[in-house]
Amino acid sequence: MAVSHFTKLDPNINLLHTFRMELHTYFDIIRRRWWIIAALMVLTLAFTLLLEKPWQPRPTSYVLGMSFSVGVQPQEIEDAYTYDGYYTALSSEYLIDDFSEIVKGSEFSTAVSERLADQGIEVAAGTIQGAAQTGTVHRILQVTVYGNDPEQLPLIADAVEATLTEDAHIFMPRLLADQGAVYLINRGGVAAIGPGLRERLDLPLKLALAFIAGVGLVFLLDYLDDRIRTRKQLEAVGFKVLAEIPRK
């Protein structure tokens, strides 16, 4: 008794073949107009070097960080249960989030600028607003001050600290007028910092975007191009190809 053996073709083979054919088609499209991609990348590189001039030395930047806590006095109400200070702690947590936004505002930076002006130090409110960054870590308010002058930076930090600890009630009068205050719990020293990650990746990202834009433009031009270039294109419009003349 003879036994016949049949081999079942794997459908993944056809998919792989189709995928390879598509890759060849895409490569041919890019190869025909590769100079567009190269031109965009060269122009991007030239304009970036011309505007940013990375060969020139950059001024050293400095940073100084401070940490603050907000305390609120619990209300003493006779014959009333105050939940063991739960709402007092919750209010402090909310106030820290609020002050994280207050420090970023123009009113706070103006108050710091005026405090510095009283000491004979002229720093614009906009400069202070751009130099101060805030955040919260474990219910602690973090204030970081950046600048290019290592001698002026501690003076700005002093004014920020004094404005927060002495004049906090001006920004939150209802909650801090008689019941709470802002406390400095930690202050670091002035430290030099190098270029940030965004600055280091600026040129590579621009070149990558130029490459992507160039590839998109190449495929758009190919889509708008109605010339016949390949055997498949000719067969797609109903013609039968008998022979091909190779380029070489």
Description:
The protein is of the alpha+beta class. The protein has 2 domains: 83 residues, no CATH class; 134 residues, EIF_2_alpha (Alpha-Beta Plaits). Helices cover 54% and strands 15% of the residues. The longest helix has 23 residues. The radius of gyration is 33 Å and the shape is elongated. The N terminus is likely disordered.
Mean pLDDT: 80
Give the strand tally. 5
- End-to-end Cα distance: 56 Å
Describe the largest sheet: 5 strands, antiparallel
Tell me the β content. 5-15%
Roughly how many Å is the radius of gyration?
Answer: 33 Å
Silhouette: elongated
Write out the CATH superfamily name of the largest domain. Answer: EIF_2_alpha
The CATH architecture category of the largest domain equals: 2-Layer Sandwich
Structural category is alpha+beta
The string of secondary-structure elements, in order, is: HHEHHHEEHHEEHHH
- CATH C-level class of the largest domain is Alpha Beta
Number of alpha- plus pi-helical segments: 10
- What number of domains? 2
Stated plainly, the CATH topology of the largest domain is called Alpha-Beta Plaits
Q: In percent, how helical is the residue content?
A: 40-55%
Unreliable stretches covering 5 or more consecutive residues: 1-9
